[in-house]
């Protein structure tokens, strides 16, 4: 198995269209290099994290829409379920997190 760290600018010719590539990394960079690598990116469902059993997370996780998340008291841990549209962090309340303005689902749980 060959491991290659891809440069930000382009996919090297030796990595293009080989048919045996696997991509591990962030979704934005992956979207830029997938075609050149000849791979298809798999996206988890928005409900994957809150669907995990408590035994795997050690906390109760729920998914709420942005409109409801803004009204949550804190402190709370919040993150987007699949992308990196806002930083995963502990926030003082739902009102103190500044994700995109579009209606985005949040995963939330107790901070510790």
Could you characterize what this model shows?
The structure is a single chain. By secondary structure, the chain is an alpha+beta fold. The chain is built from three helices and four strands; from the N terminus they run ααβαβββ. The chain has helices at residues 27-37, 54-57, 66-69; strands spanning 62-65, 76-79, 89-91, 105-109. A four-stranded antiparallel sheet has the order 1-4-2-3. The longest helix is centred in the first third of the chain and has 11 residues, at 27-37. It is elongated, with a radius of gyration of 18 Å. The model has no long low-confidence stretch (mean pLDDT 80).
Brief digest:
This protein is 17% helix and 14% strand. The protein is an alpha+beta fold and 112 residues long. The longest helix has 11 residues, at 27-37.
SSE blueprint:
Elements: H1 27-37, H2 54-57, E1 62-65, H3 66-69, E2 76-79, E3 89-91, E4 105-109
Antiparallel strand pairs: 1-4, 2-3, 2-4
- Number of E-state strands: 4
Order of helices and strands: HHEHEEE
Cα separation of the termini: 39 Å
Helix content: 10-25%
Taking the sheet with the most strands, its summary is: 4 strands, antiparallel
Structural class: alpha+beta
What multimeric state do the chains show?
single chain
| Mean residue pLDDT | 80
Low-confidence stretches: none
Throw out a few tags for this protein:
single chain; alpha+beta; 4 strands; 112 residues; 4-stranded antiparallel beta sheet; 17% helix
């Amino acid at each position: 198995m060959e491991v290659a760290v891809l440069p930000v600018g382009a996919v090297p010719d030796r990595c293009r269209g080989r048919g045996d590539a696997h991509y591990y990394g962030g979704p934005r960079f992956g979207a830029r290099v997938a075609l050149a690598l000849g791979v298809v990116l798999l996206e988890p469902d928005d409900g994957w994290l809150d669907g995990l059993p408590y035994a795997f997370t050690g906390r109760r996780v729920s998914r709420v829409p942005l409109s409801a998340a803004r009204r949550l008291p804190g402190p709370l841990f919040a993150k987007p379920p699949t992308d990196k549209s806002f930083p995963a962090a502990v926030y003082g309340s739902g009102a103190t997190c500044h994700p995109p303005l579009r209606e985005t689902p949040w995963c939330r749980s107790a901070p510790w």
